[in-house]
Amino acid sequence: EVQLVESGGGLVQAGGSLRLSCAASGFAFGDRVIGWFRQAPGKAREGVACISSDNGRTYYADSVKGRFTISSDNAKNTVYLQMDSLKPEDTAAYYCAVEQLYYSPLYYGGSCLTPYEYSYWGQGTQVTVSS
User: Fold this and answer.
1) Which end of the chain is more exposed for a tag (fewer CB within 10 A), N or C?
2) Which residues, 6+ apart, have CB-to-CB distance to 44 below 8 Å?
3) What are phi and psi of 130, to 5 degrees?
4) In which element (H, E) is residue 70 found?
């Protein structure tokens, strides 16, 4: 069974940093697209960053580009989200998600930041940024 477990969330002041981890089991990262998403109360879930594990290419939402970095360790089946220069607007529950590469729009020239294109999701980890 595919399982994703997020960790690393917490409370941090504006300008601080956090690193989120997503540990996966039940599949190999080698042919997957892995994404980080977030959802704040009363708002829709939005894509933050994603990575294609076959070639390592990464993609970011405009709101986090230059501040967040997604990376993966395929041998450990773990994906990370390094978050720097955090802002109060980054406060949300953060989720990792995975989709088979060939089922992802990314493979066909689309994006990997659309929540409804992912099949498997973790339970989330809360990130709170105080002003």
Assistant:
1) N
2) none
3) -90, 150
4) strand 68-73
Q: Cα separation of 86 and 131, whole Å?
A: 10
Q: Identity (one letter) of the amino acid at 75?
A: A
Phi, psi of 97 (to 5 degrees): -145, 155
Rounded Cα–Cα distance for residues 81 and 35 (Å):
10
- Tell me the per-residue pLDDT of 37-80, one tens digit each, with 9 for 90 and over: 999 999 999 999 999 988 889 999 999 999 999 999 988 989 99
Dihedral sign, Cα of residue 17, residue 24, residue 98, residue 51: positive
117: helix, strand or coil:
helix
- Rounded-to-integer distance, Cα 58 and Cα 73, Å: 14
